[in-house]
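hey so i finally got around to running the thing on that chain from the lab meeting. sorry it took forever, my laptop kept dying and i had to restart like 3 times. anyway pasting the input first so we r on the same page abt which one it is
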Amino acid sequence: MKKRIIPPIVFIILSFVVACDKHNDPPTLSDISAPDSLAKGSTDSAYISITAIDPDGADDIDLVYFIVTKPDSSSSGYHFAMNDDGLLGDSTANDNRYSTGILAPSGSAQTGDYIFKFYARDKHGNKSNNPQVTITAYQRE
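ok and heres what got predicted. didnt touch it at all, straight out
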């Protein structure tokens, strides 16, 4: 039986492909932009944004969102999705700035500090760091 010889370059290419496929870095979140405070019951628009960078490319980011914790430390756990498509409060599509509009708490909501904690996940399931910002809800006079 004749042995088949595979050229060394094929081994190098296969090794590179396998090594690249196994290594995938998580996204990183930074540069939060948010109002310091909101008047309860206000109908004014407010926006919140964050930069999401994935070392494996912007197309590798699957989801960017935040969860809000109320002043009494309770949370619904709801994931508020953010977008980078130039719509719904995002000013420029595909600039790595994920944004969304936020509403002021209703007039009957709690007064105090609301904590917005941010999350991102890439298409491989890698999770980002989780920065947070505090927005204070105050009673209008």
